[in-house]
Amino acid sequence: MITDGELTDGASNLDKACEDAKSQGVPIVAVGIGTPQGKPIPAGASFWGEAMYKKNSSGEIHISKLDEKTLQKVASLTGGVFIEGSDSDNLGSIDGALSGLQKTEMKGQGAVRREELAPPLGWMAAGTLLLSAFL
Q1: Who's near 77: CB < 8 A, 6+ residues apart?
Q2: pTM exceeds cut of 0.70
Q3: CA 111 vs CA 11, 69, 106: distances in Å
Q4: What are the residues facing 64 on neighbouring strands?
Q5: FRET pair for 29, CA 20 to 30 Å: which of 17, 79, 112, 120?
Q6: 38-93 pLDDT, tens per residue?
Q7: DSSP assignment, residue 101?
Q8: Closest CA relative to residue 72, chosen from 34, 31, 38, 33
Q9: Would you call 61 helix, strand, or coil by DSSP?
Q10: Domains of the chain listed by start with CATH number
Q11: pLDDT exceeds cutoff 70 at 35
């Protein structure tokens, strides 16, 4: 889980979610992104190249702060680990942290079959256009 750890409005019950994860044998590797002091969240650039930032419901720029305590709590309650993601050396340790955790066999529901709808819709549109040319 890569996050700043801040709880947002409408967030679920953290303790219950951790209990559910632990009961199902799912340890959480919490990677904390950001700084405790906080920084604005980039949201791209304007037409003129000016940096844009995410805004809250009041229209003010949202400052995201790293909540290490919450992320450490999530990791410890689920049997996972917390990694501070602001340092590239720490990010390199994610692979080691994952390999050190107990593996759980996942049973999937099968593959999702996707069907491209653009070609048939394109043919129908072309046929309608051709038919309208004759009428």
Answers
A1: 15, 18, 19, 22
A2: no
A3: 30, 38, 13
A4: 39
A5: 112
A6: 888 888 888 888 999 988 888 899 888 888 898 999 888 988 888 887 777 777 77
A7: S
A8: 31
A9: strand
A10: 2-106 (3.40.50.410)
A11: yes
